[in-house]
Write a structure and sequence with these properties.
By secondary structure, this protein is mainly alpha-helical. About 55% of the residues lie in helices and about 10% in strands.
């Protein structure tokens, strides 16, 4: 049992897990008539929040009167979270985003541009190919589905997404800064 506990605890420190999750998000947001990118770290963090907390993604979809069928929440996900986030100035956050993004850029999987004060994050062709390859493994099926759900229902400006999260999950506002978000 101890090995299982250590394995689960180590997931949070396993950078490739975070990289894969962010790549699935970037890939989903690059699709569609406008193509595209994720504009702003705030937006990236809020979308990643729903990825990490799929039971809260269900609640968010219900708040928007959308179907939760495609979330395909597994029993083990109802009472746990893959990797926790903290409550920060602008809502859910992980202090390692810049680290993860720098790794993706260094590997040629993502690109970052600065437009004014906004960090614009895009997936590269190489990143898209990796997502395509990962998508062949059934273990990543929930990532693929949930990224698509986020693109379809939560492609909002970062500030609007943050306001939606605060309105839908008022319990997050009451947390002290840097407190882990528990479900």
């Amino acid at each position: 049992m101890i090995d299982l506990v250590h394995t689960i605890a180590d997931l949070d420190q396993y950078s490739p897990l975070h990289e894969a999750r962010l790549l699935f998000l970037l890939n989903a947001f690059s699709r569609g008539p406008n193509g595209g990118a994720i504009e702003g770290l705030t937006k990236l963090a809020k979308l990643d929040f729903f990825f990490r907390y799929p039971s809260l993604l269900e609640r968010a979809l219900e708040a928007k009167n959308k179907s939760i069928k495609d979330v395909d929440l597994q029993d083990f996900e109802k009472y746990s979270v893959e990797t926790k986030m903290v409550r920060y100035r602008f809502g859910p956050w992980d202090h390692r985003y810049r680290e993860f993004l720098n790794i993706l850029v260094a590997k040629g999987l993502a690109s970052i541009n600065i437009e004014g004060k906004t960090v614009v994050i895009s997936i590269t062709e190489r990143g898209q190919k990796l997502v395509e390859d990962l998508s062949l493994d059934s273990i990543f099926e929930p990532y693929l589905k949930r990224a698509s759900i986020l693109k379809r229902h939560f492609d909002l400006k970062g500030t609007n997404l943050m306001n939606f999260i605060y309105h839908t999950f008022p319990e997050i506002i009451s947390l002290r800064a840097n407190s882990p978000i528990m479900i």
